[in-house]
Amino acid sequence: MTSPSGPSRRQVLVAAAAAATAPLIAAAPAQAAGAARSRTWDLTLLGTSDTHGNVYNWDYYRDAEYDDSKHNDIGVAKLATLINQIRAERRGKATLVLDAGDTIQGTPLATYYAKQEPITATGEKHPMARAMNVIDYDAVTLGNHEFNYGLPLLDLWIRQLGFPALAANAINAKTGKPAFLPYVIKKVSLGFAAPTLRVGILGLTNPGVAIWDKGNVEGRLRFDDMVATAAKWVPIMRARGADIVLISAHGGDSGTSSYGPELPNENPVTLIAQQVPGIDAILFGHAHNEVVERFVTNERTGAQVLLSEPSKWGQRLTRMDFTLAREHGRWTITKKAASMLNTNTVVEDPKVLAAVRAQHQKTVAYVNQIVAQATEEMSTVESRYKDTPILDFINHVQAEVVTTALAGTQYADLPVLSQASPFSRTAVFPAGDVKIRDVAGLYVFDNTLEAVVLSGAEVRAYLEYSAKYFRTLAPGAPVDPEQISDPSVPDYNYDAISGLDYDIDISKPVGQRITRLVLPGTDTPVADNAQFVVAVNNYRRSGGGNFPGIVKTQVYNEQQEIRQLLIDWAQAKGTINPADFFQPNWRLVREGVPVF
């Protein structure tokens, strides 16, 4: 992001990098005369990724210490303890700490300082800046979720950090120049009698930002291919003195995308390692997988590129260890390996906790405010494969908001449909008090509400695409609800639609599963040329998930956050009663026989 009135701080940094990247760590002492050529030194890289606003080991939706079925812990405070332990063990030796992105979104803590008390309005330091500055990272790569709250908040967060934020493939749309710092070259001391090691660190963000946050970046930023960007910058970094090159990339290693081919690959890390020579290792994120150690052979040089991904939310810490030798005046890596540390083995770092305590406590108080009374318990446990009241709650509120907004317009007489996804498998509205954290647990993303017009044929195609979520199960075959979905399709890319009645036949091939699509309460088939308004979240409408037909001009877009609309509706009603909104309208079948 650049300022039209003059160069931003990042532009200055980019210029500095392009000229001669300034050292960020003091140079090592000169090599002692006559030092043995056979001596080796070592460098350790510690890597985090996808921390998603988690500082404390705390579940804001349950108002309790975080725990899951595998007893993982989360949070930057836990990571800090592991990082401090390794730094202490390696005192006097070189240790770098990097992050591969998705930092400022994902918890009520992060949302509170973006929405309720945005740092852009208060000037307060973001909790993730406070926590990460205590650790003193060497660099962070921007993830796609860094763009969720707009460029002004991102710009301020970057300025609050005590270390560089990198994104070489985020380009200013007007100037064609990098909008953020592409890379840094750090002069690192390996210890006594070692010549200085110059470590190049290149940051790559995800091209999917152009879809997922189109409203924030369109016309301002473009996002280039990650492979091509690495191919451009790695030789430049080498030419400018980088002895080794590390990449911190916010993209997975699967080589596939959740969107169509109109954007560069979403998860190209394997391709980067294969196709771009001169890379020694890649720390990556985005996919939320735990990849301890993976070697990929570069197709041009035969070199083995080390890859590692440290899961999500601060559950794991990647450790990469490099053994280096000095030969003929040049550094070479003679050995490289990676391992993974589990944060459930340590306590939280008290300095990180103290830095964020007041903000954490304010967030806890906020999410525990009561918004309404529920007449009965409602849960998402079965929402992936059954029509449930709690998902209909989302659809009812969305459809009601859009219907009201379109009154008196040319679209007023069109039926309003609505889509909702089962974002959480564990969200619950308890009978009795429903709190903000209960609503936030149901709708965990910061999506806004939009609406478009679809034809009957487009609605059918949309539902067929959504139905690929389910495995194919022949009539009579046993059905395990926990295994009913295709693991390659995430829950957030399965949509249920309200406003029409339909059957999904999971015994039939993908693309032939919507065997009944009728007007509500009737046996009248939906005509291909029928017209409907569809209430949809901005992620989906912008192309997230690559659903057909939905990327078109909005007929409604008031930039209202869906989570807040749900809270507002509940507060206005005072009561959440399924009788007011639950309309069972879809079911899974096999040859017309309900699965459940």
UniProtKB/TrEMBL annotation:
Boundaries of every Calcineurin-like phosphoesterase domain copy: 44-289
UniProt main location, coarse: other
Keywords: Hydrolase, Metal-binding, Multifunctional enzyme, Nucleotide-binding, Signal
GO CC term, one of those recorded: outer membrane-bounded periplasmic space
One Gene Ontology term of the molecular function aspect: 2',3'-cyclic-nucleotide 2'-phosphodiesterase activity
Domain 5'-Nucleotidase C-terminal: 371-548
Compartments reported by the entry: Cell envelope
Coiled-coil boundaries: none
Required cofactor(s): a divalent metal cation
Classification via Pfam families: 5_nucleotid_C, Metallophos
Reactions that this protein is recorded to catalyse: a ribonucleoside 3'-phosphate + H2O = a ribonucleoside + phosphate; a nucleoside 2',3'-cyclic phosphate + H2O = a nucleoside 3'-phosphate + H(+)
Signal peptide: 1-32
Official protein name in the record: Bifunctional metallophosphatase/5'-nucleotidase
Organism, scientific name: Micromonospora acroterricola
